[in-house]
Amino acid sequence: MSFSRTLFAHSNEFNWIGDKHSSRFYERTRPDEPAGRVSCGEIRTQSTISTTRPQLNHTHTHTNPNGKKSAKMLLAEEPATLIRHTIDNFNIHPDKQAVARINESLATLQQARELRLREAENALKKLSRQLNTMASQHAELTSQHSSTAHASEIARLDTTKFRTAKAASDAEMEAERLAQQAADLSVRLQELEIQGLDGSADDQARRRDPVDDEVLLRLKVYRSLGIEIERDGRDGGGGEFTRAVVRNDRKGDVHVVNMDKKFSKFFYANYFWQTL
């Protein structure tokens, strides 16, 4: 059915409303539908609607070949004119602007999507290159690695480690032996210094002062404990004992103590005992 036939086929069921402030063309007046309702919908426009009521002729009834009666609307104006006026009353500019904004937003989103896609592709290519490089390096290292050579190298390093540890232990034992020998020689030297350069041991024993015997006995006791007492070798020192070397063979420690007169003999004896 054409637009004009659709719009005016049932004009006898509508009353025309013709003021310029109304956007309704027709109002239904059939008793079976509520008043004020338009069957084809309400058309709202921003322009002024023509208030001229279309000139509608009377409806003529004729009989179809089937024997049924049909009504045909005779219009005073051309259907094309009515359609043009109807189209002019539609305001589609806001819809066109909305569609343009939507298209612009879609274009922006498409550009952003393409940009992110390019960035992801670049990152993927970079990671692929890194993967290929690491894979080639791994393959090269794997091809160069030999399990037999690795085992022999580990065995050689273990042997070298054990030999080095044994040599260090032997050197430590030799150092302790030499330290003990040096201590014995130092004791012998002090004994010879006490005896003097002239005279034999028998003469020195006959001429020995009881005080010297006491000093020698004390030195021997100290040496047996691992303590060596040294005299002050400077001029004017008076030959007093000013330095002590304490050796602990169990711990392998050596302590050098400078003896000062401001500390008591009990302090030094207690310190030596704690060190031993």
TrEMBL record:
Task: List localization entries.
Answer: Cytoplasm, Cytoskeleton, Microtubule organizing center; Nucleus; Chromosome, Centromere, Kinetochore
The keyword DNA-binding is assigned to this record? no
> Per UniProt, what is one Pfam family of this protein?
Spc24
Q: Name one GO cellular component term.
A: microtubule organizing center
Keywords attached to this entry = Cell cycle, Cell division, Centromere, Chromosome, Coiled coil, Kinetochore, Mitosis, Nucleus
Transmembrane helix as a keyword of this entry, yes or no, is no
Tell me the subunit arrangement. Answer: Component of the NDC80 complex.
Name the family.
Answer: Belongs to the SPC24 family.
UniProt-recorded name of the protein:
Kinetochore protein Spc24
Q: From which organism does this entry originate?
A: Colletotrichum higginsianum (strain IMI 349063) (Crucifer anthracnose fungus)
Q: What are the top taxonomic ranks of the organism?
A: Eukaryota, Fungi, Dikarya, Ascomycota, Pezizomycotina
